[in-house]
């Protein structure tokens, strides 16, 4: 009787209560993605005018996106450094460090002088701080995913793994909502251009506001204790002196598979959030040197995007129970087939007026939620506890280079080579999804793996 009671009582008192796990994994990724989306929005609206004034609108936009991609290149380095610390010294302190790095870099971007004031030094400083953002995000995601999955009850790892993933749509809504409020307070006479007040100082507010969110995030994360899985590995002497060497020596296949698992997710993610804002706002009849688009004002298209991102959040949560019931592999195979098909119907949907564009956004963001949600459990499940932070982080962030760093840049180039049509952009997405599908077909199911072993 007493033995049975003790056995059933143990899982009821985990190292971290469920509410603390949810908040700690969710709030950090919300802040990190908020900071990233603030930059992504400014990369379209502001930075081409203030930091890359080349005289050619398309060249300025491509330059701004190139800096956007620079952060993705820094992410694997962040994954290695923070992964090493997380696998040797624990998840808690590492997550606090990643959050502070991101918050400070974002805040400083809001204080930067522009090209008109200091010339080439302005874009140089922007690149440095953007790289710092990428470095921080490289260590943030895997730590947040581990906090969720290593503290999850049996049979609910994918469900718990959706909590850090939910930070992406929430961060997007907060960032773009704040930009919308500022744009409403500082309206422009030209719907295709921000107002002068917005360019002078309004764009800085979202970057400076990040400090408030970081303070809240630190308060939550400092209350965490280490997960049972990490504490057990530490007590049993299983921690490795050099996790990076261990993961490359013994788990290189999982690194490759994990990287390709994320390709379709990343390509879809940044095409739907960054490229779409450029294409949606571009005039139908473009001026010389610019590319034609849908001709919506920033306010209208940003509201449409937020409407689509709501579906991103909903289907991120839906994906968890599906992946717990049917398995990560089977769920993602079907979703990836959907992404391939979606890339093939871009032009008909985008050419069908307002409701066609809204359908495009809803379908795209719904698929985004369904593919992004299970990754919070799938990537950590590929690796043992003593290299889990490093392995999942490297896979996630190397994929950010292949699937996201170049995505907005390639999309603009394809948009340009297609004479203003997004047809080849959709084909590009489908090709990335085919590579993900191949990786999934070559993989094994991870749903029933014991991550505490």
UniProtKB/TrEMBL annotation:
Molecular function as annotated in GO: symporter activity
| Membrane-crossing residue ranges in chain numbering | 21-40, 60-83, 95-118, 124-146, 166-186, 201-222, 255-275, 295-319, 331-351, 357-382, 394-415, 421-442
Indicate yes or no for the key word Ribonucleoprotein: no
Instruction: Point out the coiled-coil segments of this chain.
Output: none
Alphabetical keyword list: Cell membrane, Membrane, Symport, Transmembrane, Transmembrane helix, Transport
Write down the membrane topology: Multi-pass membrane protein
Query: Any keyword Disulfide bond?
Result: no
Which residue numbers delimit the Major facilitator superfamily (MFS) profile domain? 21-447
**Which PROSITE patterns does this entry report, sorted A to Z?**
MFS, SUGAR_TRANSPORT_1
Q: Per the annotation, which location comes first and is thus the protein's main one?
A: membrane
Subcellular compartments: Cell membrane
Q: Which domain of life is it from?
A: Bacteria
- What Gene Ontology terms describe where this protein resides (cellular component)? plasma membrane
Per the record, the similarity remark reads: Belongs to the major facilitator superfamily. Metabolite:H+ Symporter (MHS) family (TC 2.A.1.6) family.
Known role: May be a proton symporter involved in the uptake of osmolytes such as proline and glycine betaine.
The protein's name: Putative proline/betaine transporter
Q: Which organism is it from?
A: Agromyces badenianii
Q: What is the lineage of its organism?
A: Bacteria, Bacillati, Actinomycetota, Actinomycetes, Micrococcales
